[in-house]
Write a structure and sequence with these properties.
The protein has about 525 residues and is of the alpha+beta class. The protein has 11 helices and 23 strands.
Amino acid sequence: MSACFGTKRVMPDTMPADPAKHVNYVRGMVLEVDEFKQEFAYHSGRDRWLAREVIGYGTLRGLALGWEKDPTGKLQARVLVKSGVALSPCGQLICVSSDQCADINQWLAARTDEISGKFAAGASSGEIILHVSLAYSDCPTDDAPVPGEPCRSEQDLMQPSRITDSFQLELSYDAPLQAEEDALRGFSAWLRKLSIVPESDASVTLGVFMQKVRAWDAADSDPASITISVVDVPVYSTTALRLWVTELRPAVERSGALYHFKTWLANVPHKTTGTTTEQEFLAEIRRWTPRTYAWPGNLVIKDSNQSDFTSKALTLWDQEIAPRWYAEPCGCRAPANPEYCDDRLLLGTLRFKVVKNAGNSWEVVIPATLSADTPVVDELQRPVLGHLRALEAQLIPSPEPEAEGTTSFVPPHVAPYRHVAMGRLTPGQTQITPVFGNLRVSDVKSGEVYFTFDGYSKPDSEHDYIVQVIASYHISTTSSSRAQPAVSFAGFNETDFFYKVARASTAVSVAELKTIEFQVEVSIIVKPT
């Protein structure tokens, strides 16, 4: 296992076996090493494929990132990653079995000229941003003697008999390309900003809504302008999820990579005296990968050629680059480009000030007290995965722990306080607005309105209700001039509860009560026993 952070990601030495194939065992077949490798690739590939497509990717447990402190609590120029488990973007389980560290001052000292090139000439201080990522790797272990030809070298006499799962931690200037994670966050935030209204006629049509969802990442896509009736939320939510799965998700990796490609193109050096030919320019374009962020300094294009060269680069993206890198989903077949796959998982971003010391090497600035120069860790962009029980706990409340000597207990399926019924009701009209708990008007008498709901029972020693009611007239020429009546709670019956409605101590008539809209909210409190 890696004892400290690495600078290069471990890559496979050979072409990986196709995970979509498994061995067709037939009598008389001679089984060679390739057959066993292929069978392992099939089962291992399906595990990764299932994990990635069904669960997602991210940190599963542990892997906390932070600056190390000495026993007195002072920050050190060392970054610590705690042990833990993660799932990589291609579905590979990664286990970091022990805490790992990186001495940032040593990392900087090995890159003095490189760091200096990031600041103005002669600068003696500046800010560095590094991304900490985690990737899977493996290690051949347990050498054992193997048969073979005579007169072999000592190295050929022994071969590793096991492959051990391992990992690679990396410090880099570029963050992993997590286009799906970024898109999923953006899409979810966009959906949460949709306007939910009670009036059904204010909702956009389902066809218009689908068009808006397909264009959700467009610059002019304004979720606040999309109004949805509350009764249509289930259908529209299901439609949004279906479009995400069938249309949006398959395109986000390519669109995310295109963003980085355009950013890379924007940094192409250009001058009036540029000498780079079109052939040299396109040759460099073909070398682009998702981790190419620095344009070669020896290539400078002429200002007059910039627009034409950029247009040709984007055409090359559509015709060659994107199909090579993003033509297939991860896991369901052999990769189209096995020599490169960015399977890194972002753990966090380090931001810290550096200063050049007398020996001309760079060091991390560690202030004596907390200040703007204090090194920080940003983990907001880290993908995380909550396991099923953690998500379940958010939906199903657990029983509260009992104090010693008490016998109170709240069943796990019953929260001590929760809403049980709510809605807007007009006694004289057919219910058209959505209600919760089947709230309904059970009776109307002079100066009294009675309500009930599914599961209602008169309060007793085990439970009680908190009821809130607001009365208001529907806007009309006959009612707009009337004074608002006073509404007061009157009591609980065996099958319902009721309110008294009066104006200047005079009971409001039944006919008038049938024109008033009542907004009702009922909550239950479960009493400890």
